[in-house]
Amino acid sequence: MSFWPSVYNYFIIPLFGIGVKIASLFNKKIKKALEDREKLFDELKTQLDKIDKTKPILWFHSSSVGEFEQAKPIIEKINSKKEYNILASFLSPSGYYAAKRYEGADIITYYPFDTRKNITRFIEMINPKFLIYMRYDIWPNSVFELSKRNIPIFLVDATMKKNSPRKFPVIKNFHRLLYNKFEKIITISENDKKGFLEIGIDENKVVVAGDTRYDRVHQKSQTALKQKILNENIIQDKKIFVAGSTWSEDEKELFPALVKLHKFEQNLISIIVPHEPSIQSLEQIEFELKPHVSSIRFSMLNQYNQEKIIIVDSIGILLTLYAYADVAFVGGGFKSNIHNVLEPAVYGIPVLFGPKFSNSQEAFRLIENKGGFSVKNKFEIYRLLRKLFSDETYRKKIGNNARNFVEANIGATERIVKLVQNYLN
């Protein structure tokens, strides 16, 4: 019981600290996170002074933006009557700054560097009633300290891949100690539950509830459907293709297929939403398309003149744009990791993506449910898009499969909140 905490605190954490400082010399994001953390406790105190002290604090920790999106349905359900103060902590600057716009949290803070001294100070300041870790970003000293104080800890939307390093010899022993200090580990599937049991976690602690991403995407889609961001005169009687969160590696394969497709589909409008709409990336997209297909930037649509491709030069509207689509392509699969395939699937449209999707269980399952396709190159993209846009019956069949897949997996939030409330009451 004392061996692994000693190894962690006297060996792993010092090495990790050195590594982070070295990495900050080359990585602006890491440097920013370190600089911000210098005033963490002062800013935390300022926020704590402003909250209603009669309400207990529920602590939610997320690594970054994506994980916090999974936490939001739980936060909103569990605190629907405003009985608690919600504290959200983050590892990354992107999650920290994005959350500042979220009205459902009372305190937004970085997670402190995971030393015993820092964590003890942090926990004594906030005195949480509960901690929920989202998905995977677990920090041992907070687990050890909260366990000593008998403060419940949950891991939500948990996964454990078949080849996870957490199952490796020796490392497995450490994770067995760590995870057994949780009250509940709530997994997204039976296979994930099996993975936790394989490393020796108490069976009574591991529960399958599903993935809150489905709930969150469905929730956001209902709001998006009410928003009108495209002029009806532009899209009326048109077929719409949306390519979301694309990188240059995706565009290299996608654009030749689109150019060819537009020769046959005269009634098609394609909307390209680059992952990073920098001036450089926007100009590069325009340069590649200009000789073949007319294009216009989203911000210039008041001057629309029958252009075939709309290039989105703003952020935060992708989910709403998917609502207009007949077919969607999700980027990242030709680079390293695919982005969120559920965002278009929730609208009942076929979803295409590149071959690198091992990070996404939803992509695997979307293929299994015949609502999505992985494409390997520009030739496959073209053939599939040609069939989908020329055969309306086929397109609608695939789209219905996608919608049914998402809707069949809604409900994880309800199950998770019931489990949590057993410890809050």
The spatial strand order of the largest sheet comes to 3-2-1-4-5-6-7
Radius of gyration: 23 Å
State the distance separating the first and last CA atoms: 31 Å
The shape, in one word, is globular
Percentage of residues assigned to helices: 40-55%
Largest sheet: 7 strands, parallel
Write out the CATH superfamily name of the largest domain. 3-Deoxy-D-manno-octulosonic-acid transferase, N-terminal domain
CATH architecture of the largest domain: 3-Layer(aba) Sandwich
The count of DSSP E runs of length 2 or more, i.e. the number of strands, is 14
> Helix count, per DSSP?
19
Structural class: alpha/beta
The portion of residues forming beta strands comes to 15-25%
In the residues, how many domains can be counted? 2
Could you tell me the CATH topology label of the largest domain: Rossmann fold
Runs in which pLDDT lies below 50 for 5 or more consecutive residues are none
Rounded mean pLDDT is 94
